[in-house]
Amino acid sequence: MTATRHTAPLPGTSGLARASGRSMFTKTLYDNRRIFAVWALATGVLAMMYGSFYPQLSADAMASVPEAMEGFGLNDLSNAAGYLKGAVFGLLVPLLVTFYGAATGARMVSADEESGYLDLLLAHPIGRTRLLLHRFAALTAGTVLIALVVLAGMLAIRTSAELDSISVTNFAAQALHLALLGLLFGALATGIGAATGKSRPVVFGVTAGVGVLAYAVNGFAPQIGADWLRHLTPFHYYIGGEPLKNGLQLADAGVLAAATVVLIALGTWRFGRRDLGR
Asked: What number of other Cβ atoms are within 10 A of residue 78's Cβ?
């Protein structure tokens, strides 16, 4: 009679580990699950907190907004859509999403190349293009999660914060525009890292710097009589069409999506031809 031999499972061969190893996409999702969750919760809580202040807004507060801030969406606080456009979706939330795209995009290639782990990954049967696209798909999933959490948070306080004048459809449209903004800066960071091989801090710094500069240009351009400059920034296409009032802006969303595709395509093209040893 032959005895049955039991062996302990090897490390990393649990069901979850095997599932996450089926593709670079699912592995990247699993490895970054805490990062994505923290970004989503932080952004969602911030949006809910500022959104809930709307019933407490007084006429004096509306009149005390500095003229220099009107370009950031604080030009009409007399209704719910105008308030949210400025106080929630025009100030901190888009900046947080921009920094998420910059920080996460810098991790997708630059962090692995900096640590030497990229060589190990590419030693396996996975091409550079597939690696980059799977990584970016995981970043996309994280961005969608942030937008969904923000949307859920706003719908949760919609009645209590007297935001009922904004339809659920328009809230969803604003969340979609928010996701597209995050994807654009994620594509910029991922593309820069893939194309240049620069370190993660450098890639993050450049991308975040571009984001802050574009944000400032979009906000201050009206003050210097140069509204046309707004059309050169992604923030104009993110919120210039006022999705909370007018619903999904197909042309604006198309510009953000097209720019994202171009950035990730250029990064992928350069990544496939670049000498990774330099």
From this structure: 10
Q: Categorize the per-residue pLDDT at 70 as very low, low, confident or very high, splitting at 50, 70 and 90.
A: low
Q: Compute the distance between CA of residue 66 and CA of residue 77 in angstroms, rounded to an integer.
A: 13
Helix axes 92-108, 128-156, angle to 10 degrees: 160
Please give the Cα distance from 99 to 95 (Å, whole number).
6
Please tell me the distance from the alpha carbon of residue 106 to that of residue 98, in angstroms, as a whole number: 12
Which pLDDT score, from 0 to 100, does residue 118 have? 77
* Residue of 169, 174, 177 whose CA lies nearest to 51: 174
Closest CA to 238 of 52, 65, 97: 97
CA 148-90-53 angle, to 5 degrees, is: 80
How far is residue 33's CA from residue 16's CA, in Å, rounded to a whole number? 13
Q: What is the pLDDT of residues 104-145, one digit of tens each?
A: 999 988 887 777 777 677 777 778 889 999 999 999 999 999
Rounded to two decimals, what is the model's pTM?
Answer: 0.87
Q: What is the pLDDT of residue 66?
A: 54
In 11-156, where does DSSP find H-type helix?
15-20, 24-31, 33-51, 59-63, 80-83, 92-108, 110-115, 117-122, 128-156
Number of domains in the chain: 1
In a domain, 105, yes or no: yes
With respect to residue 12, please indicate whether it lies within any of the assigned structural domains: no
Domain with 119, as residue range(s), is 22-271
Distances (CA, A) of 5 to 12, 72, 113, 121, 239: 21, 69, 42, 34, 64
Tell me if 27 is assigned to some domain.
yes
> How far apart are the C-alpha atoms of 69 and 176, rounded to whole Å?
25
Spatial contact of 107 and 76, defined as CB atoms under 8 Å apart? no
Residue 47 in any domain: the answer is yes
What distances in angstroms separate CA 173 from CA 148, 198, 209, 250, 273, one per listed residue?
11, 35, 27, 10, 38
